[in-house]
Specification:
The structure holds two protein chains of two kinds. Chain A is mainly α. Chain A has eight helices and no strands. By secondary structure, chain B is mainly alpha-helical. Classes of the chains: A mainly alpha, B mainly alpha.
Chain lengths: ~230, ~400
Amino acid sequence: MTGGFAANLLVDLDALVGGLFILSAFFLMAPRQAQGFLKHFVRQSFLLALSALLLGWLHGSVELLLVALITLLAKTLIIPGLLTRTLERELRSRREVELAVSVPASLLVAIVITVLAFVFVAPLLHGVGPTVDINLPIGFAVTLIGVYTLAVRREAVPQMLAVMAIDNGAFFAGIAIASSSAIVELAAGLEGVVVVLVVAILARTIAQHVGSTAVGDLTSLKEGTPS
Amino acid sequence: MTALVYSWDYIRHLARGHPEKERRYYMNLNLFVASLLVVPLLLQPALTWVAVELTTVLSVFLVSFDNTPPALEAAWKYAVITITGATVAVLGIFLLLWGLASAGGSAQTWSALVAAAPHMPAAQLKLAFVLILLGFGTKVGIVPMHTWLPDAHSQAPTPVCALLSGVEVTTILYVIMRLWPVFQGVPGLFATRWLEVVGLVSVGVAAFLLIQVHDFKRLFAFSTVEHMGILLTALGLGPAGDFGTTYQLLTHGLAKSVAFYAAGSVLMATGTRNIASVRGLIRISPVAGVTLLLSGLAVAGAPPFAVFLSELSIFRAAVSVNEVWVLGLLLFFLAVAFLGIMLHINAMVFGQPSHPPSSTPGSLKLAMAVGWIPLVVLGVYLPPPLDHLLVLATHALRR
């Protein structure tokens, strides 16, 4: 455990990272190109790793330092690398991706979601430590914003990264409230990589067979359509 | 095991001239089955979540097996919706682990969570419950997050449908059931009412969708949504409904597997999934016709099949705890579902044949024969060892 001035400094830094983390969820709503979405996701994942590092240092927790390392490796290096290799053409194309809801309207919804998330979590925050106060509501808000981002995106790559952003939100809250064994952290990190690999291969197959990764345009399975 | 037997002739037929495709199918199928077996073996909720995610990623390419645009669409929806659900659920698990740590628990196991639950704040348990129910419920197929389920079932090869419907959704429901004793610590009827409402809405919506469905594989998929709704409702009835819940979990798995096997044999005999295009099935393929008719009766809950007895057990539980409105709604929705299923199947089985006669391959017959034995036996006789096993399983649902 770190005490005194250093502890306060680490908490303040975590608060700063938390603020940037929730902003990163807002930024994820804006990009109109897949490449931009990936860059924002990497920045968000870096902030998650940074928060885990600060909390690990603060609490003297080896598991949290391991989370920071795994997040950094998996989400800022391996996953972007896998996506770039698997979906190179889609990521390099400057094609503007379609948004189901305009960016200003989405930002408004995100603000409402953030307020609601803080209201939902408020009863849990009595008498808890400062880092839980920061990470839990922000992680919950980013999870919910991620679900909304997923719902309004119509392209494969942004949808896939929105799922991973939901994962980031859940783990941002998780690192402050739940300590897990190293094996769980390792399994969760590997699982994230496998999920992205499988979904990226599926997206590439869709691009090969359908001609684009605009998954929002795939509507042949609507109820009432005779097979 | 029956899914593997069924696959022998079925996948050879689908992958004609592509042995590589056939090999990939068996590799993916075995990995998928292994992931399903891992879920109930794990003691740690966080690791169970990882295994749940693996069940999805290891079955995505089974759903997209045909690589047609509809199959790819179904696989995409399946992957994205169910992975999102499980990711939301992990936040609920984190909240429970937080409660466990605050209560002084060190081992992160199911039993440690149950022991720590009374010491957790009610607000924390409530939020965790909602996140876990909606998160894992997405993969179970509860309404309104069920949309992936009929799509995946209409496009995946039949043996995969049998595993998705008969084994996968029940395995994920097992995770919710395993956590149920933790949430029984929530003061009042909060958790119970959530289960009953979510369950009844799922049963009701599925029952009415069963009437308007056009695809017979989607018909059985909506029946799965209906059965999952029944199971959640039964769980919400408390200890009185525990035996019915575990019994229904078993009978659903048995009935849904044979129902999809029957649907697959119809598809092989006629080449279409469209209900309106299939008529006089009993003369086109007597095996497919008879098994489809019996499967329809079995999944709809008609006697003498096992689902009838398990549903009867749930009705009796609702009466014993005086939940008359639950019983009334369940009976009404099940009557609608029965009507929906049997109207479609009746139209398909009887009448003038729409296709030339066709024979059912041997491995399909064998898988269906083996699958039908427990379904029929359990409809008239519950062997004491199995009865004892179900009673033991009900203990896991109680505090």
